[in-house]
Amino acid sequence: MKALLLYSSREGQTKKILEFIDNELTDYQCDLVDLHQTTAVEWDLTTKCLLVLLFDMGI
Q1: Which of 42, 58, 54, 49 is nearest to 21 (CA)?
Q2: Rounded distance between C-alpha atoms, residue 33 and residue 19, angstroms
Q3: Cα distance between residue 53 and residue 42, in whole Å
Q4: Which of 23, 37, 46, 52 lies 20 to 30 Å from 16, alpha-carbon distance?
């Protein structure tokens, strides 16, 4: 099974979270995709998708 892990991160923390999730999802082949670095997403054969975005309150 294939999981698509999409993320947006300024300082790399969101990517680190998804890398941890990737390691935990041992039943899935995970593709991590930085939404700032890609123009297209491959949805073929994707069975799960997780979207994680930066939430910054400016504090």
Answers
A1: 49
A2: 11
A3: 19
A4: 46
